Amino acid sequence: MPKKLDFKDYINVDYTQTDDAQLALNAKKRKEAVEPTDEALNMAQRRKKGIQMKKMAARLKMGRKKASMKVASPDKLAKRSRRAARNAITKKLTKGISKAELTPSRKQEIEKRLDKMSGKVSRLAKKMMPKIRKAELARKRG
Fold it and tell me: Full-prediction pTM beyond 0.70?
């Protein structure tokens, strides 16, 4: 008489080649999560991504909580500085209108213009870095 199949028998691909079911599952999730980010999402992709993020809300919340207890790394601070610089330039381009009030096509147009201004963004980010670092230290001190 053949052996009864259980749940583990249905896991058909071991991405890690280690025979560890949990490692294989984690690797599979990572592989599925990787998507090219060089193109803008269309509406169906955006909706799908929204549903995915809603499912992961609790995990993201815990991750944010853990991250808030640590001091940000220099890479993280550089990323924040760059984002702040992009936001500052966006504010100038839109004459103070918030990004939330813009139409998707206008946002896309501004993003393209910002991509062309990478030098300007980098210079501004470098100038903003001490301010961002000071804000991070103030946040950690409470």
Answer: no
